[in-house]
Amino acid sequence: VGRRIGHVVLPHEQVIDLLAQAARDGRHVVRLKGGDPVVFGRGAEEALELARRGVSAELVPGISSAIAAPELAGIPLTHRGVASGFLVVTGQHAAGPGARVDWELAASFSGTLVILMGATRLAELLGTLCVHGRSPSTPAAIVQHAGRPEQRVLTGTVGNLPALADMAGIGTPAVVIVGEVVTLRERTRRHLEAPSERSDDACRSVRRRAVPSGVTGDQG
Amino acid sequence: VGRRIGHVVLPHEQVIDLLAQAARDGRHVVRLKGGDPVVFGRGAEEALELARRGVSAELVPGISSAIAAPELAGIPLTHRGVASGFLVVTGQHAAGPGARVDWELAASFSGTLVILMGATRLAELLGTLCVHGRSPSTPAAIVQHAGRPEQRVLTGTVGNLPALADMAGIGTPAVVIVGEVVTLRERTRRHLEAPSERSDDACRSVRRRAVPSGVTGDQG
After folding, report:
1. What is the C-alpha to C-alpha distance for residues A157 and A149, in angstroms, rounded to an integer?
2. Which residue of A185, A191, A201 to mutate against B (max B Cβ within 10 Å)?
3. Are B61 and A67 inside 8 Å of each other by CB?
4. CA dist., res. B36 & res. B59, Å (int)
5. What is the pTM assigned to this prediction?
6. Of A84, A98, B78, B89, which residue is least crowded by CB atoms under 10 Å?
7. For residue B30, what is the DSSP state?
8. Looking at this predicted complex, what is its ipTM?
9. Across the interface, which of B50, B190, B198 has its CB nearest the CB of A58?
């Protein structure tokens, strides 16, 4: 049961029905998600909904694109003397009534800021950071299709990344990274093997771990 | 090549020497770390040090205890209407000249705060949050040995967790979680299978993914 932004294959409620029914039929059911089920994956929500229907569940940690996407692009979330922490937020709402993210706090954070599900409103999100005092010259990057052969990475600044991404036609799924660690990519990329440069075998194995197949659009 | 806090088995420099030498001998070398290599794991640092010695490397994402430890304790880092983001920091330095963490910002963050490597100075860290205005009644939890059969979880508040952990003798390695999501554990634990309640097979498989064996003490 997959989904893409804007293309709901099956309503969420029906997915739960399906899981509960299969479990009641005596089967062991795996609900496979991209990334980690509790990083914007509604994992606990689904487990609790299942519990209400008498079905117990287990949450199995996965590799979150919040960490893996920057890493596969040669951008470490933490690095001694550069960033000693990271903040992960959803980019689904920038300013406005739907915003539950404290963008003022995000703008003033000195570590690495990771924005998931923010590719479609990149200009609005990075603009919001600037409004709250973040310098437009802060290094920023966007990683699309992390871990896949078609992985694309763009680096720039908070000020120019939206235009760069627009020109390059970068779309979802993508992860946005803001902070000084982005500058490490230039140093690491010369020495790190990019997914597309790996042998097919290595590529497949990394891809399998980073982005389980069968689910697309989930950014957790 | 393992390490524990306070028990350095081999100096870091010698580990790099070892890796570089083995690679120069024509071998493929795997440097296995607990968790993810770029979440306080010095992964990029080691890759750059190796590059200086003419050895290229690949960073392979892992499952970070920052996400997996709370999750295995039934605490989702994000949950609709409760937390729409999370902040991960190191607890190795609280106040004082060594502190590169903005504890004032951490104290005012409305999402989930995750502190890695903070078990040994729990009272100091949570006290620092209070000094910066965090309410002592904020839910907080500590998870020791996440994913292992000996996993232990304590929940309480920012105010009482240090005393509870002290009484229970909770030590390293442990992950500290601060925020409203901690209260979800009581709801999820009734329905989620805890690692110790799982069949041996399931337990082994989760453990293998969450905490690669051979490395202890790393909290990334």
Report:
1. 25
2. A191
3. yes
4. 9
5. 0.84
6. A98
7. -
8. 0.83
9. B198
